[in-house]
Amino acid sequence: MPTTADAVIIGGGVMGCSILYNLAARGLKNTLLLERDLLGSGSTGRSSGAVRMHYSNEVHARMAWQSLEIFRNFGQTVGGDCSFVETGYLIFTGDTDLDVFRTNVAMQQSVGIETSIVSREDVNEIAPAFYVDDCAAIAYEPRSGHADPSGTALAYAARARELGAQIQLQSPATGIEISPSGKVVAVSTADGRIETPLAVVATGPWSRRFLLQHGIDLPLEATRHEVIHLKRPLDKLPYHPGGGDITNLIYFRPEGADLTLVGNGNIEEVVEDPEIYASRPSQSFIQEVWTRLVRRIPVMAEAEYSTGYAGLYTSTPDSHPVIDRVEEIDGLYVCTGFSGHGFKLSPMVGVLMAELVLDGRATTIDISPLRMSRFREGKLNMPSYGFKVLV
Q1: Would you say residue 388 has pLDDT above 80?
Q2: In b/e form, how buried is each residue of 226-235, taking b as 16+ CB within 10 angstroms?
Q3: CA separation, residue 184 to residues 4, 15, 181, 198, 234 (Å)
Q4: Which one in 152, 213, 283, 389 has a CA-CA gap of 20 to 30 Å to 58?
Q5: What domains can be seen in the chain, in order of their start residue?
Q6: Contact 370, 320 (CB under 8 A)
Q7: What pLDDT digit, counting tens, does each position of 36-90 carry?
Q8: How far is the C-alpha of 281 from the C-alpha of 340, rounded, in Å?
Q9: Is the separation of the CB atoms in 76 and 122 below 8 Å?
């Protein structure tokens, strides 16, 4: 392990790897990433991998849109393979959310996102097996899809290494040394001390616990979320686009040749210790979410259960992340709290964090709504939907 570095990234999920690569690509190559286990072994490895643009706030929408361009051109832009698959993405709403839905689609169009409200007849052509009679409006994003979260993290890591960055696995950071004048001077691990003037905390569900030991109290919760895979009846549903269903509080997408991945938008459980949680879905979850899916795709009543898993989100009160410098500690940065939105935003998160660290502020997108101080200021980014997945 090196004893000095120009910057230390703490956390080897897709966020940490994207940040490491973007710093190296900008010329800060004497950098080190510390990962407590293996790359992508936390939330990244259990992400659903959806890549879509529909959000109710501009900062997320801009980040998602610009991230999509990187996903779609990953080999040329970054290098390696993120396994992006274009499926198209439908978003369904009922009467209750109709006005705000239209407002959100107009906002998305204003920032350049290729999306539009389509008719039921259009949906019958795009996804003929879907039931849409209960929908007041439906939006369609033809360029959206999904990608491989673990593969994306590994691709970023590989490119960062090629540019001179280093990665130390199974080396959890134990703390950050701060000088009496309030400057980062080193990051400590069980294997040694790395002198550095810059540290980026991208530790996902472990963030609150890690930051508290340095006097930083952020309202972060680790929350457990479940996902299942169902084997489709291929004779009746060989393929379908991805979707976010505000009415039924589910999201879904095709997986491989014959599976459908399904997650939910309102079932969650706070986890006190991110080391200890049930990693498989419960029977009640499987039954509940499968039933909701059948309301949208009736032929999925004939599907077969394949497998499922549970992973952790790092949730904030407004379901928006924290991407900011710590004002009281020179050289300390925080990137956490993505509340289940992280993977689809991760390419631009790396770009913006590199700007914040190297230029003093992010310039590509205004990330001031994601500042740490918003919680004490009472200026939260309040969602316009009750469906947390789309806030």
Answers
A1: no
A2: bbbbbbbbee
A3: 13, 21, 9, 6, 56
A4: 152
A5: 7-46+149-220+318-390 (3.50.50.60), 85-143+221-315 (3.30.9.10)
A6: yes
A7: 999 999 999 999 999 999 999 999 999 999 999 999 999 999 999 999 999 999 9
A8: 17
A9: no
